[in-house]
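Standup notes, structure subgroup. Blocker cleared on the TUI input:
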Amino acid sequence: MVDLVNDINRFGGVTLRADICKILNIEYPIFQGGMAWVSTYHLAAAVSNAGGLGIIAAGNADGEYLRNQIKNIKQLTDRSFGVNVMLMSPFVEEVMRVIIDERVPVITTGAGNPGKYIKALKEAGIKIFPVVPSVPLAKRLEQEGVDGVIAEGTESGGHIGELTTMSLVPQVVDAVNIPVIAAGGIGDGRGMLAAFALGADGVQLGTRFVCSKECIVHENYKHAIINAKDRDAVASGRRTGHPIRCLRNKLTRQFEKLEETGGTNEEMEELGKGGLRKAVVDGDVENGSVMSGQIAGLIKDIKYCEKIVQDLIHEYNSNLVNIKKF
Ligand code: TUI
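Run returned:
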């Protein structure tokens, strides 16, 4: 049974909504996106300590890397935290074993269907929140027993689906009876409020948390986001079936050229190889993959996670009272 809270809906009636804070033992319904190479224990611990759900990304790393990350986060926080599993990783099986072994409280998944791992995770008492880019996958995973879904719109950074957050979230909310977390294009309290207006029970933010003091990405990466304008986060490789949204640079222009000249999927893959590491670790924001959501243009500063979370809540509440009634 999920915990429910009463909410007065727009017709004056009572709507039952999931209380994600109670379910996950967190203070605010704010997830930090699990971003490969970016979401290390430093960032995740800071977000959890600020009252949100900090999430370590396993990315393409192996089980030993993840075990070490989990050990470190446990030194920095007593609060709940999560791990994001990138389902295309060659190490997914061992990563799942470490998650079960270490009794991680909650996992999120991305870039695939986590169906075959659900039973073992549930038996270990681990809560599962997969990212879904569509209604059918949300419904299917609800039937398979996940605890909630993250409806992620194409505004997000990194690997993306087709639908926008505005279209996807209310359709998923209507299709399932489990908590829905909205992701994609949310960077401040107004975005959070909009997500709740669409029926979401929580929000997930990635790009906003990249520009935090605690995030370990190279300073060049953070400044590339801060300097980005509204149309600078572009999607490459839609034709391959695995589109990736990054800030426009030499690499995205090479992708564009390859797409125009009919390059193969293998050529696209080869071009992208190692690109995220190049940007995150080396700070090469011209030749690397500077994964970022469309909301980059809104982000203008580097703040502590505590401040990011507090500002979100303050902006949410102040905008809530300013919204016009008809
Ligand atoms: O996973 C993400 N975003 C990511 S993963 C990633 S890792 C990486 N990629 C390239 C180079 C280096 C590292 C970067 N960004 N977001 C969650 C997400 N999941 N977006 C879309 C999906 C998704 C897509 C299809 C989820 C499920 C799905 O299901 C297909 C199926 O099998 O039914």
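Discussed briefly. The two ends are 36 Å apart (CA to CA).
Next: hand off to the docking folks.
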